[in-house]
């Protein structure tokens, strides 16, 4: 597979502050690649380096094998879609999409044909004469993307393009944007702080923190096999249990929780006996009232603090025995646990392979405003 974008050892400094530190990655032709991270982690700075608005302090950027150092933004084979779409309100849809083509010197029927073809591809045939204030938020999103794609960029850069949409439209546009990318076949590099956007749409996701990539992987591997405490907390929902690790005579490592019990650990972790760790357990990995004869489960006694009913996203808020901690457990989409209520005492269990454990660190997760 051809490599469309190659970033090698890229660093960007602003005075004494290092916004991006020694980042390397490659994006294959026609793939959807996302950079996911909290505000201030350096993801937009990285995107602006690729676009040419910033010059790297060190490292290189190559697009289709061509070095981009010193190449002006308007001469790079990339286009950028911003969160605020910057459509021209005084122009109709056709004129907005045609704008870049006309600046390149194209005119007449050639422009009309390209614009109409692009409107077909983004699912808006016949919209050319509509004014910008006559179309919906989702349609504006597609027009902004069409305006970039009509110029045949090697890479389309998208800087949180769904951030200004309301929650329901944002959910819809995640699916539409992925369908559009598959349809047009252009390489997308997408910046977001929203893990759901990144996981739903992307072929690969880089999780960024403090100017560096914590993990670059498929959405599935990021979710099921995080490589750091930061990734475990930032990607998906997780219960975090503070534990101390010790090793038993058989060689197995166990996590001792504040309830006084030991829970078996499985997996290739860098564990040292006696050190403090955080054990992460996803709500949907927990089984309510596991069968007593099934010895593969770690089992914990809990009291129900609250039933959080939300249809298919319903959960239990639990208090582990002898603690004041809180755990979230997903409720199966059946009626079998409708009897549960505040104060009930239940057992929960999980397969040791579904938990992950990392040395205790001070991880701060910031939400974008």
Descriptive notes:
The protein has 369 residues and is of the alpha+beta class. It folds into two domains: 3-232, P-loop containing nucleotide triphosphate hydrolases (Rossmann fold), CATH 3.40.50; 237-359, Beta Barrel (OB fold (Dihydrolipoamide Acetyltransferase, E2P)), CATH 2.40.50.140. The chain contains eight helices and 20 strands. The strands form four sheets. Strands 6-7-8-3-9-10 form a six-stranded mixed sheet, sandwiched between helices. The chain has a five-stranded antiparallel sheet with strand order 13-12-11-14-20. A hairpin with a 2-residue loop joins strand 9 and strand 10 (212-217). The longest helix has 18 residues, at 167-184. The chain is elongated, with a radius of gyration of 25 Å. The mean pLDDT is 89.
């Amino acid at each position: 597979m051809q490599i469309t974008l190659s970033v090698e050892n890229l660093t960007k400094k602003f005075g004494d502050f290092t916004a991006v530190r020694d980042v390397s990655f490659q994006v294959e032709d026609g793939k959807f690649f996302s950079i996911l991270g909290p505000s201030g982690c350096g993801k937009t700075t990285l995107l602006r380096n690729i676009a040419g608005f910033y010059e790297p302090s060190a490292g290189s950027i190559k697009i289709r094998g061509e070095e981009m150092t010193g190449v002006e933004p308007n001469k790079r084979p990339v286009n950028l879609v911003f969160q605020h779409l910057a459509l021209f309100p005084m122009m109709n849809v056709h004129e907005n999409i045609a704008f870049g083509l006309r600046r390149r010197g194209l005119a007449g029927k050639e422009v009309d044909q390209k614009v109409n073809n692009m409107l077909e591809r983004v699912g808006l045939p016949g919209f050319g004469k509509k004014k910008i204030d006559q179309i919906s938020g989702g349609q504006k999103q597609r027009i902004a993307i069409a305006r970039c794609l009509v110029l045949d960029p090697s890479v389309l850069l998208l800087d949180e393009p769904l951030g200004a949409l309301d929650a329901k439209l944002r959910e819809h546009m995640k699916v539409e944007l992925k369908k559009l990318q598959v349809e047009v076949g252009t390489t997308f590099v997408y910046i977001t702080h929203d893990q759901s956007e990144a996981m739903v749409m992307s072929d690969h996701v880089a999780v960024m923190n403090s100017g560096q990539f914590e993990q670059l992987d498929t959405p599935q591997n990021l979710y099921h096999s995080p490589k750091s405490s930061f990734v475990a907390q930032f990607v998906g929902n997780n219960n975090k249990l503070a534990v101390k690790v010790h090793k038993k005579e058989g060689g197995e490592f166990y996590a001792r929780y504040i309830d006084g019990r030991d829970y078996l650990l499985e997996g290739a972790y860098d564990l040292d006996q006696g050190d403090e760790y955080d054990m992460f357990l996803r709500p949907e990995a927990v089984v309510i009232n596991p069968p007593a004869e099934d010895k593969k489960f770690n089992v914990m006694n809990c009291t129900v603090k609250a039933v959080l009913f939300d249809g298919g996203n319903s959960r239990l808020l639990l208090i582990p025995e002898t603690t004041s901690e809180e755990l979230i457990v997903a409720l199966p989409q059946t009626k079998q646990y409708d009897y549960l209520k505040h104060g009930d005492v239940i057992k929960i269990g999980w397969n040791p392979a579904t938990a992950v454990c990392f040395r205790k660190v001070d991880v701060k997760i910031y939400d974008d405003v």
